Hints:
The chain is of the alpha/beta class and 275 residues long. 33% of the residues lie in helices and 26% in strands.
Amino acid sequence: MIRKCLFPAAGYGTRFLPATKAMPKEVIPIVNKPLIQYGVEEALEAGMYDIAIITGRGKRALEDHFDVSYELEHQINGTDKEACLTDIRRLMDRCTFSYTRQKEMKGLGHAILTGETLIGREPFGVILADDLCDGYSNGVMAQMTRIYARYRCSVVSIEEVPQNQIEKYGVIAGSEIEDGLFMISNMVEKPGPEEAPSNLAIIGRYILTPDIFDILRETPPGRGGEIQITDALLTQAKRSMVLAYKFKGRRFDCGSVAGFVEATNYYYERMGNGG
Ligand code: G1P
């Protein structure tokens, strides 16, 4: 039902310097697979096969990753190494990839608005690849599309975070209309501990209806002087309805070194290498 998924990937990845000096943070691998590939696999599992990536300067590696590498493929053709490329070849066969550049870093809301040219007027998913999610048998984006199918409005995914972490996130308040599903009444981007309306933090998965682009165009800069998707979604929640969904699964903040190490150990063990 939703075909397109947007990947904002223009940021500098400063939390991961010096690794990200010449390499996009989205190609940092967890075990042997780049973060963005996990994200694209999750999108495809949700039926989103038109992949739209917002890039910036120094992000060529992203485009190359989803393209044929003739020399390499020629070299390993017919060898046992070929199996290592099975997953990425499958993605390349099933998905289309489009790119546009965000020329100035003016926030996540601005990055998403930059994607309007690739998305058009239809609902779409957004995945922030450094929030790596294992939805166990059901990808988080696939879980969210089921909510969208029933309510036809924007949906954000949330999880409970400890009070001392809340200032790193967009935070929601709302009424629980079903188990784990909230109708949003308030949202604050990166609140101080006393401003936080709850302990329910937004994580990097969104389904957005296309009127969000019109709202983003009129959204003034917010926290950090940046155009915030959280602010635009609050406007949308007041005008119509936005839902927050407590996803089932586990999330790793791979934009931080601690989260990256945790994810690496987790996926290494899951591949059957642990112990
Ligand atoms: C962004 C959003 C924030 C959200 C977070 C999830 O922040 O602005 O609302 O909670 O992603 O990872 P960032 O981490 O890009 O600063």
